Amino acid sequence: ETGVTQTPRHLVMGMTNKKSLKCEQHLGHNAMYWYKQSAKKPLELMFVYNFKEQTENNSVPSRFSPECPNSSHLFLHLHTLQPEDSALYLCASSQDGLAGGLSTDTQYFGPGTRLTVL
Amino acid sequence: AQSVAQPEDQVNVAEGNPLTVKCTYSVSGNPYLFWYVQYPNRGLQFLLKYITGDNLVKGSYGFEAEFNKSQTSFHLKKPSALVSDSALYFCAVREGGGFKTIFGAGTRLFVKA
């Protein structure tokens, strides 16, 4: 799991707080993803970045704001969250075959940040 | 639209017995199919994938999966289950060339000693 790291591993925040989740991948991949994993629900894709450009925003509320300053780092900025936003937030990366590069299509996941909104 | 169905919330099997975790999919183009496993308090780990070629795909930890185009299925199998295989298993599908991977709801596997 050292290929994709996420910090913090656990976060408790109030509804008026502002916090950020951080993801870093050490695999040289060009695509990064944010997923939300809630109890008894399928994994939900939130955002996709490819070569630092956002290519997917899966109808995510504006209280979640992603940032991808370079291909190795991905942030998820949180503000005025709701209790139903409590979940495990997973980051993933992959090497996709754009620009003639080798495509693995396989996503490598970080350990996740367990978020609790009070 | 892409979709994945894992019809079983839970599968129970005795150690040493064969196991099967079922997955069916729907995608308009060529499917890229994946199996991932999640252990408690961990992220998802890649097990195996089908992109093209031989319908029987072999992956990590002795797992394999068979792509069946006519039945649109990609069931995960292992000839002899271990207690350490107990985990949450996710099937996923991606349309070839796209970035969006759709995951199933997951199947919890319990292997009893």
Structural overview:
The complex is a heterodimer of chains A (118) and B (113). Chain A has 118 residues and is mostly beta strands. Chain A has strands at residues 4-7, 10-13, 18-25, 31-37, 44-50, 53-57, 64-70, 73-79, 87-94, 108-109, 113-117. In chain A, the strands form two sheets. In chain A, strands 2, 4, 5, 6, 9, 10 and 11 form a seven-stranded mixed β-sheet that branches. Residues 99-103 of chain A have low confidence and may be disordered. By secondary structure, chain B is an all-beta fold. In chain B, 0% of the residues lie in helices and 54% in strands. Chain B contains no helices and twelve strands. Chain B has strands at residues 3-5, 10-14, 19-21, 24-26, 31-38, 44-50, 56-58, 64-68, 73-78, 87-95, 101-103, 107-112. In chain B, the strands form three sheets. In chain B, strands 2, 5, 6, 10, 11 and 12 form a six-stranded mixed β-sheet that branches. Chain B has a four-stranded antiparallel β-sheet with strand order 3-9-8-7, with no helix packed on it. A two-stranded antiparallel ribbon of chain B has the order 1-4. Chain B is globular. The model of chain B has no long low-confidence stretch (mean pLDDT 92). At the A-B interface, strand 5 and strand 10 of A face strand 5, strand 6 and strand 11 of B.
- Distance from N terminus to C terminus of chain A (CA atoms, Å) equals 29 Å
Give the largest chain-chain interface (CB within 8 Å). Answer: A-B, 25 and 22 residues
Overall geometry of chain B comes to: globular
The number of distinct helices of chain A, counting runs of at least 4 residues, comes to 0
Quantity of strands of chain B, as a count: 12
